[in-house]
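@channel sequence for tomorrow's demo:
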Amino acid sequence: MNFTLTPRILNILSHINGPTAADIGTDHAYVPIELIKRGICTKVIASDVRQGPVDIAKDNIRKHETSDKIEVRTGSGLSVLAPGEVDDIIIAGMGGELICDIIKSDYETAVKSRLILQPMNSQYELRHYLIENGFKIVSEDISVEGFKVYNLIIAESGKGAPFECDGYYHLPPYLKEHENYKALYDKKMREFNKVIDGIKHSAKPDLNKLALYIDWREDINNFTKNPTSDGMT
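structure tokens (generated this afternoon):
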């Protein structure tokens, strides 16, 4: 049995240092299987809160003959792990606010490992949470699949420096030189413009929210459209 390695999954694989990792919300266990097959990790814990995905994961792992190196656990978030049990913790395919809740629920486990996070939304909230709660963002990456654009945020325990402008929590200036930056910028502008247009055409417009989104849009455009600036002090 073979499966397609999408750009999103390949992006995750490229940032795992090993030798041990945990894939939280593993679903089909594609990431753990590839981590073992490629020799990136010697041991992976694959977990999911639902029994259905756990059963599918076990079946896929067995078919790929990696059962001796991948342990499947059933449970919520990081509760399946002991603090420091793995080097890298992968949390992908979930909303940013849910990722925040998972980290909050088992904070002592989260701070003992390197976090590989791929939020489907609410990147603004996730970056704020990490920086304000004892984590530093050490790098980020971007992958594109058709019309879908994905952020990858790598964080670890440490003192994270706040961004200069609040809008940068939506789209950090250090991503400007990335080959997929324009795709991410365009996606963010579509989101902002949709909200701004909706407020402007509302019978009772929320002027505070309107001003906030316009400020965010201006923050991002200031460094995006200035070829000599990365938007940082």
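heads up for whoever presents: The longest helix spans residues 181-200.
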